[in-house]
Amino acid sequence: MAIEPNIVVCMKQVFDPDAPPKSFRIDASGKRVVPEGVAPLISPFDENALEAALRIKDQHGGKVTVVSMGKAPSKRVLDRAVASGADRLVLLQDEAFDELDGYAVANVLAAAIGKLGGGDLILCGGQAADSNNGQTGIGIAEFLGLPCVSLARSFELGEGKLKLECATVDGSAEIEVTLPAVVTVNSEAFTLRYPPFPAIRAAQKQPAELMGAADLAIDVASARRITVVDLAAQVSDTTCEMIKGETAAEAGANLALRLIEAKLV
Questions:
Q1: Which end of the chain is more exposed for a tag (fewer CB within 10 A), N or C?
Q2: How many Å is the Cα radius of gyration of the chain?
Q3: How far apart are the first and last CA of the chain?
Q4: How far apart are CA 63 and CA 8, in angstroms?
Q5: Contact 81, 101 (CB under 8 A)
Q6: Are 37 and 93 within 8 A, CB to CB?
Q7: Which among 10, 150, 118, 7 has a CA at the least distance from the CA of 67?
Q8: Neighbours of 209 (CB within 10 A)
Q9: What does the alpha-carbon distance between residue 172 and residue 156 come to, in Å, rounded to a whole number?
C-alpha cells in the first residue's frame, strides 16, 4: 500500500451524554428512550477516531471519509467532521436504520464501506457515548474479514503496515498489523481539533453523499440479533437513617450494631 492511505472513520450522532436524566423520558409502547430538548452531537469517542485519522493525513497525506448512519443523521451536526479536515461525508439515511442493535449497525456499516470501495484503515471510537457497547469496530472487522486492534493510542504508519501502542487493562501493548485493518481509538490520546470559521462555512456548502438500505442491498430486519422486550427507567427507593451518639465513638459503635442488625456486615 502506498503511503497516502484511504481512511474511513465511522461516526455516530448521539444526544448529549452530559444532559441530565430529566431531559429524557421512556416511551414504553415504542420501547425507546426519547430526548426532550437535548441537542444532538457527534459521539466524543468518534471524535477521537477522527482526530487520529486527521493526524495520519497530516503526516502522510491521503483521504479521510466519514460515514454516519441513522434514521435521519443531521448533516449540520456532521459538518464539523468536514470542517475539521475530512474530505468526504457519507450519510447512511433510512427509516430502516432506526434503533438497530450493535450487530445490525456493524453489518450496515460494513456493507457501506464495501460499497465505497473499502479503505486501507477503518477507524472507530472505542465505544459509543450513548450505549457504551464497544461492539461496532469489532463487528465491522468481522463482516469485512479484516484484523481488528482495539484502543490504539499511537499510530506509526509504514508501507502496508501499521504499528500501534494500545491501552490494555494492566498497561499497554505494542502491536503491528497488516493493512487493511480496523482499529478502535483510545479516548485519552486524541482530542478533535477545533475547525476555523472559514472551514465551518465551507463544510456547510459541501453536499453529503446519501445511501439507503436499497443502495446497500441489505435486509436490515434480518440483520437484527436483539429484540427489546421491555424498557423502563430504574426506580430508586432509598431511605436515609441517621445514626447518632453522645460521642463520635458511641455513634461509631451504634453504626456498627445497626449494620450487623441489617446483615450488611
A1: C
A2: 23
A3: 62
A4: 8
A5: no
A6: no
A7: 10
A8: 13
A9: 15
Name the one residue in this structure whose C-alpha cell is 430508586.
Answer: 236
Q: What is the pLDDT along the chain (265 residues), one digit of tens a residue?
A: 457 999 999 999 998 888 888 888 888 777 788 888 888 899 999 999 999 999 999 999 999 999 999 998 999 999 999 999 999 999 999 999 988 999 999 999 999 999 999 999 999 999 888 888 889 999 999 999 999 999 999 999 998 999 999 989 888 999 999 999 999 999 888 999 999 999 999 999 999 999 999 999 988 888 888 888 888 877 777 788 899 999 999 999 999 999 999 888 8
31 vs 232: CA distance, rounded Å = 8
Residue 12 phi/psi, 5° resolution?
-105, 135
Domain ranges of the chain: 6-223, 238-265
| All three cell numbers of 91 | 450519510
Measured CA to CA, the distance from residue 187 to residue 196 in angstroms comes to 23
Q: How far is CA 259 from CA 172, 236, 243, 256, in A?
A: 41, 21, 10, 5
Residue 216 phi, psi (nearest 5): -90, -5
Continuous segment of H or E residues that includes residue 88: strand 88-93
Q: How many CA atoms lie within 13 A of 224 on its CB side?
A: 11
* CATH class for the domain made up of 6-223: alpha beta
